[in-house]
Amino acid sequence: VQLQASGGGLVQSGCSLSLSCTASGRTLISYNMGWFRQAPGKEREFVAVSTRSGNSAYYADSVKGRFTISRDNDKNTLYLRLNNLKPEDTAVYYCAAYVAGDWYSTGSYDYWGQGTQVTVSS
User: Fold this and answer.
1) Is 64 exposed, middle or buried (0-12, 13-18, 19+ CB in 10 A)?
2) What phi and psi values does residue 108 have, to the nearest 5 degrees?
3) Cβ atoms of 41 and 107 closer than 8 Å
4) Which of 43, 61, 95, 118 is in Cβ range 3.0-4.6 Å of 113 for a Cys bridge?
């Protein structure tokens, strides 16, 4: 499956953004889908995951209550709504797909998108 992330940008603290990740090659319902982010000089970290059906989602503590992951399997698209953004949310955001493994671990993910930059100014 090929993944294409989009929707990043430069916003002020407290503002919102919506990211999208479009899948091609295989249907999205075949995969659990996650969002990760990587800030300069830091390791890639887990942000959120949506299970295949979309019935379950899990979030990193740092984004819980502010970010919402969702998916439209018919449109083969994964979303991440980022509310109340903070400067520490600045990073390149990646969407990724996996079949089995630990949802919080980068090593579990089989396919990655190219990333979209989110920059939050104070």
Assistant:
1) exposed
2) -80, -20
3) no
4) 95
